[in-house]
Amino acid sequence: MTSEHKATIGWIGAGRMGFEMARRLLGAGYDVTIYNRTRSKAEPLLKLGATVVDRPVDLADRDIVFIMVSAPRDLEQVTVGADGVLTSDEFAPRMIIDSSTVSQEASAMIREFAEARGTAFLAAPVSGNPSVIAAGKLTIAASGPRETFDEAFDVLTTIGRTATYVGEGEVARLVKIAHNVFLGVVIQSLVEITVLAERGGVSREAFLAFLNDSVMGSTFTRYKSPALVNLDFTPTFTMPLLSKDFDLGLAAAHDLQVPMPIASATAQLVASAMGAGFLTEDFSVLLLEQARRAGVSLEAENAAVVSGLEVPAHE
Question: Phi, psi at residue 164, to the nearest 5°?
Fold first, then answer.
């Protein structure tokens, strides 16, 4: 959009991620109207200036409609199902930006429906969690028509720190799945070396402080350090969600004939942890399973550990 006119925004999905993303747009002065299946979850945004509607089709007259839902069937329902945003006889959004984590096949089907209505479609999955969004460090991968990405760039970078155009069609979905497979492999490797250091007499706080200040430290290792040090597994991303992404990633690897032995082994460890009952905790709970296998008893260290995701004071 030009600087003279901010796009009117429709937002579908006010879960933990969608809520924070919509809040950033409201904070930047965008006109945002929200639909969420459970209306009460969206209503706290009313005090920030949002409007809440009862059906996705009520967003059909918006310039841009963002979607952040949890599964392909949900994406289909809110777009082309009963009262979906693409079912109005009178209006259709100029653009849909879908940030849900779904397969390339599901994305392509909705793209076809959207384009038949004259609505441009951008696949734009994100990397981060609510704390990452609040800290202004969300990253976005987008695919679809280049001109659609260019038009949406200002809106995307209001929500996230960066938005990267990765190609045509649905390739952003593959980028997101590859990212999440790597996330799983990295957390498993991180808990293994952390348990190794503790078994040798080094506190988790000290080991992770050293790691985070080294060339191997990253935004990810820093923001997971408080959970690992203090055994706080409040969920940001659960094991079943991680397992689903491993399934999608390994299916893509099979189709593209790319061997992924480390990812395959990690997927089995994730499945084992789920079998042990870790279903609702944050995926960093893999630390407990690694400690159990090593015969190490863990206790919370109750240390003040900086995550690197502290919200800037001006926000």
Answer: -110, 125
* Cα gap 282→305, rounded to integer Å: 18
Cα four-point dihedral sign 38, 44, 48, 51 = positive
Contact 67, 98 (CB under 8 A): yes
Q: State pLDDT tens for residues 69-109.
A: 988 899 999 999 999 999 999 999 999 999 998 888 999 99
pLDDT at residue 5, rounded to an integer: 74
> Which pTM value belongs to this model?
0.88
Per-chain mean pLDDT for the chain: 94
For domain 9-169, give the fold: Rossmann fold (3.40.50)
Please state whether beta strands 120-123 and 126-127 pair in parallel, antiparallel, or not at all (unpaired).
Answer: unpaired
Domain ranges for the chain, please list them.
9-169, 174-294
> How far is it, in rounded angstroms, from Cα 118 to Cα 125?
22
CA dihedral 293, 295, 301, 305 (to 10 degrees): -30
Task: Give the number of other Cβ atoms within 10 Å of residue 193's Cβ.
Answer: 14
Q: What are phi and psi of 7, to 5 degrees?
A: -60, 145
Is residue 130 within 8 Å of residue 15, measured between CB atoms? no
Q: How far apart are CA 24 and CA 155, in angstroms?
A: 10
**pLDDT tens digit sequence for 110-127:** 999 999 999 999 999 999
Does 1.10.443.10 match the CATH number of domain 174-294? Answer: no
Dig out the tokens for 63 from the structure: 């310039």
Q: Do domains 9-169 and 174-294 have the same CATH topology?
A: no
